[in-house]
Amino acid sequence: MALRIDQDHNRFRQIVRGRIKRDLKKYITHSELIGRRGKNLVSIPLPQIDIPHFTFSPHQRTGVGQGEGEVGTVLGSGEPQDGTGKAGDAPGAHILEVDVTLEELARILGEELELPDIQNRGTKNIASDKDRYTGIARSGPESLRHFRRTYQQALKRQIAANLYDPTNPKIIPIREDRRYRSWKVSKQPQSNAAIIYMMDVSGSMGDEQKEIVRIESFWIDTWLRSQYKGIDVRYIIHDAEAHEVDEETFFHTRESGGTVISSAYKLSEQLIQKHYPPGEWNLYLFHFSDGDNWSQGDTEECVQLLRERLLAAVNLFCYGQVESPYGTGQFLVDLKDVFKDEEKVVLSQIENKEAIYSSIKEFLGKGK
Q1: In terms of residue numbers, what domain contains 169?
Q2: Residue finishing a domain among 61, 82, 114
Q3: pLDDT digits over 78-134, tens only?
Q4: Helices (H), the chain
């Protein structure tokens, strides 16, 4: 019975997985999904799936098997009902909340967007405990009993005690014959990644633009966490000056000053030099802005910082330009002219929430 239940459960999970994959673009562009996130799970509403249940025919008639009947009543006879009655006002859809792990969500995202696995280059800093089975012990949990060694030990004992009968080769292990796999715990270095998010919070970046950044960063985090064992995330906001902040402040701060983009690039370089040696970390820079920089001179300084300092240290630099009625959008044009042949630079124009889907694919599609 348990096996049948497992089969049914797995089949249901496959149906759910297929439905999520089919509607992934819808989930990506809606921020409600982020609000349903737990520590390792995301609760996804699936109103299209009905729980199996019995239903009655809409053409029921009175008669034998359907109500009171008497001897001699002809099967299937009866007067049709008049169809009168009060219409219901309850919705017909059934909303089913399904918990999906972030790991499974990342796999679905990777399959649907055809994202390649990342070829990481970092080597250490975060170590995990790894169990290695190295020998045989006389005691241990039954789940680790070594059946072949237990059988051999019982056979040796019976032969030595002259209890073994070749014509009736029955081997019955006793407590002293049991052998168990033993292990030791070793430290194993894991590849790590650091993500530095930078966002323009000047007056031209409104709530709608920040919501787009929040949604896109959630999916970027989900994918990168599936590729690395350790993730460090830093947040930098900037207008005319740059500051490192926490996640809550990052998505809810709005300033009224101008925009000096180079201030964010300088601060990210300081974080890398202080905390993330490039030989040990996989580094990702994501910058979101409406493309309105203070001056052409500051844009040239940004280009110089990227060329001479940042690109050599990172796996990927991604710039997402979020459409704003107040931004000029010139910064994206300038970066395209300068870095059109640079593989580590990925540029994306995000016009609205519907463009998040293609933007994620542009950012993560190179497998770096």
Answers
A1: 126-188
A2: 114
A3: 555 555 555 555 444 445 566 777 788 888 888 877 777 776 665 544 454 555 667
A4: 2-22, 24-28, 32-35, 102-113, 147-160, 207-227, 247-252, 262-275, 296-305, 330-338, 356-364
